[in-house]
Amino acid sequence: xxxxxxxxxxxxxxxxxxxxxxxxxxxxxxxxxxxxxxxxxxxxxxxxxxxxxxxxxxxxxxxxxxxxxxxxxxxxxxxxxxxxxxxxxxxxxxxxxxxxxxxxxxxxxxxxxxxxxxxxxxxxxxxxxxxxxxxxxxxxxxxxxxxxxxxxxxxxxxxxxxxxxxxxxxxxxxxxxxxxxxxxxxxxxxxxxxxxxxxxxxxxxxxxxxxxxxxxxxxxxxxxxxxxxxxxxxxxxxxxxxxxxxxxxxxxxxxxxxxxxxxxxxxxxxxxxxxxxxxxxxxxxxxxxxxxxxxxxxxxxxxxxxxxxxxxxxxxxxxxxxxxxxxx
Length: 328
Ligand code: F6P
Fold this sequence. Notes:
By secondary structure, the chain is of the alpha/beta class. It is built from 12 helices and 11 strands. The chain folds into 2 domains: 8-144 and 262-310, Rossmann fold, CATH 3.40.50; 145-258, Phosphofructokinase domain (Rossmann fold). The protein has helices at residues 21-34, 45-50, 84-96, 108-121, 145-166, 181-190, 204-216, 233-244, 264-282, 302-307, 309-312, 317-326, and strands at 8-14, 38-42, 54-57, 101-106, 125-129, 169-174, 194-196, 222-227, 248-252, 288-293, 296-301.
């Protein structure tokens, strides 16, 4: 499929939805139509591709979706696509619908699926980093990561009101898989007293004695943000309560972090990346993800995007240290 001129593209969103996916879909559809291409929407990610859930799209299909959370294309995590049989079905559907290339908007797992399409089945694809986790390499941000931090921050601020009124300790568990991004950013912005993220050692004695001495010095509230990849909030709350004898409450913020209207940075990022992906395909690129470094969009191979991420985005120790210092 590599040598064909692109006339018709497919778009899919895949994996966990993220705020801004719709803004990206709108941008891809309208830019592609502007460039004279036909557009097909693939519903439910790789699952819908296998099941031939393909719809025609035009400029009106994406009216009034810029500000909407979730994804109008729906999304799924497909087990079947992990099998050769599933992949063969997907490729047959691509041929049947005459899709010359596919824009895949999703996180790490979804872009690894794109590697398979590209390398094993020679399907042209272009990737967008659609995930709240910000766990892709060679991009400062992923689509949805800004909004998710805002959502967590809103919760932290509200929880702070009650925690300081009741002089409690509070543990807030946030998403992000093994990535510290959401925890560190929301922690700094929300003035968290402690942030616990994957890669750190859990030192209950130290945490508990920090709380006790801070309380003695007159500190009224103590918020710990814990990344889901580190520990569960409930578990941590019990252990700290046992050690300190203070009242410790906890919350797992869960999927609230994925919902809601995308904020301005995510709408702008998604709109820019969507149009850039269409240009990249028309310019002959394939097998790459759109990333942003500074304010500049660029293309990066899927392999680098998916597997360089830990190197590229180590826990930002400076921000972590600043958060601790400012919360003292
Ligand atoms: O990848 C996005 C994400 O929200 C992660 O932060 C989280 O661990 C996971 O998806 C939850 O997946 P699901 O929605 O399938 O429960």
